[in-house]
Amino acid sequence: MVARVALIMNVFEPGECLRLDQVVSRTGLPRSSVHRILSQLHSAGLLRHRPDGYGLAASALPVTRMVEYSQLRAVASRTLERLHADTGLVVHLGVLLGGEVVYLDKVAGRSGVVTPTRVAGRTPAHASALGKTMLAQLPAEEVDAVFSGPLSKLTRTTIVDLATLHHELTRIRSRHGLAYDNEELAVGLCSIAAPIRIGEGEVAGLSLTGALPTHRLQRTAPFVMRAVGRISHHLGRADPEAAVRGSQAPVSETDTMLSRVLRTLTSDAWV
């Protein structure tokens, strides 16, 4: 599946629009498979669909990087859905691009919470738990290089100076990457996040966001850490297809029991 996604994404040039039959002709893949993958890429925000065909969506990531991250999205998909089902909170999967978070996936479902994020969209990394958990994986000098200019202020609690950001990143490192934000990206929303190891020198992140205070979000920390551990484990497999299959395997009895306990509690009960 990953190889087919890469093959299809690579037939598009910036600004080019291709019909379904043209993509089939250029890739040599079955028409039904191409149609299904194009629909999935469109739903993920990686392709745009107009009356005259498909084209690359405006994205912060070049095509080559989008293809590289397609396996991460495939491996993480079931874990994201399960985490949302267990908590009722918005789940994000993202990567770090300079001083910004680029969102690879988002599961909002039944949460009813409106967040200022979208798949393939960007937000300032210093202003969210998701961004800070990834920044905390970088050496301090790399963080300095990323934020050579002033830090943008999105809310009254957004970190706006580099010294405070470094102090926050030190605290996150002491918690093994676990990060929080308290209405720093959007008023009324708080988040918890943890990093995902995706390769040599590369890191992604997963977050939960909701309209509840951080001291209640802290109760979800074991589930967040278990989720990123599961994704990292499957990404470590040598065979990409096996990694995706493994990530879709039934969860353990322990995971099931923990999920049942969490589902019996409303978010207001996480105190």
UniProtKB/TrEMBL annotation:
Q: Does the keyword Transcription apply?
A: yes
| One of the record's GO molecular function terms | DNA-binding transcription factor activity
Keywords annotated in UniProt: DNA-binding, Transcription, Transcription regulation
Signal sequence, start to end: none
Question: Locate the IclR-ED domain: which residues?
Answer: 52-237
User: What GO terms in the biological process aspect are recorded for it?
Assistant: negative regulation of DNA-templated transcription
This protein's source sits in the domain of life called Bacteria
**Can you name this protein?**
IclR family transcriptional regulator
Where does this protein come from, organism-wise?
A: Mycolicibacter sinensis (strain JDM601)
